[in-house]
Amino acid sequence: xxxxxxxxxxxxxxxxxxxxxxxxxxxxxxxxxxxxxxxxxxxxxxxxxxxxxxxxxxxxxxxxxxxxxxxxxxxxxxxxxxxxxxxxxxxxxxxxxxxxxxxxxxxxxxxxxxxxxxxxxxxxxxxxxxxxxxxxxxxxxxxxxxxxxxxxxxxxxxxxxxxxxxxxxxxxxxxxxxxxxxxxxxxxxxxxxxxxxxxxxxxxxxxxxxxxxxxxxxxxxxxxxxxxxxxxxxxxxxxxxxxxxxxxxxxxxxxxxxxxxxxxxxxxxxxxxxxxxxxxxxxxxx
Length: 286
Description:
alpha/beta; globular
């Protein structure tokens, strides 16, 4: 048995995932590997560094800081989420990311991004939580129009959710056969075609594959949700999702709302804890 953890993105909806994985860590539930897209990558990396509470803590404290996310940052730098603050100042100084623990933990950690030239998904195994790993996480979370393309070696990358919203197929291709999938939308949610396509096509005229991918994103996402529902029904995966719509936007900055969503994640994980233990082969407490 090879145990995997799959974490969907969704920007600030990702604090739901923070609640789930914190409960896992508090209860000694470990995985052989994990894979995340967008918030599933930038918040989920705390699983490998074993930093319980860090994901919700820094978001509650800094999400309202204009250096973290603001129109001002978008105008000045081309990134809605400030690169210097989010990927350097915060993890290096204000709420340090434990790169030593990240590197020492044998759990594999993968992130996905979208190749801006081809529109195809590309994947990266993070090993030390520094430099290039952080750039891949940034790329995975870089939404078109409100983010610059991230250049890594010979690749130009954007939001992984365009080409592959949830990385369950990728983990399965690596031999992971017992996977827990954390989603950030309630059961039955299906994405609609973006009303922003004309703007996206204009802004992404240098990257037509991204514009095409954004036009088809709802089809890709909905097909994955259909398959995940089937996986859940047949026991191919254990799926944890919000019991109801979270009721927050992608850029939510109200710390009370973030705490509420975090607690929803904790509550759902606690409710399903014995089920998770049994699914992963742990001894279930009587």
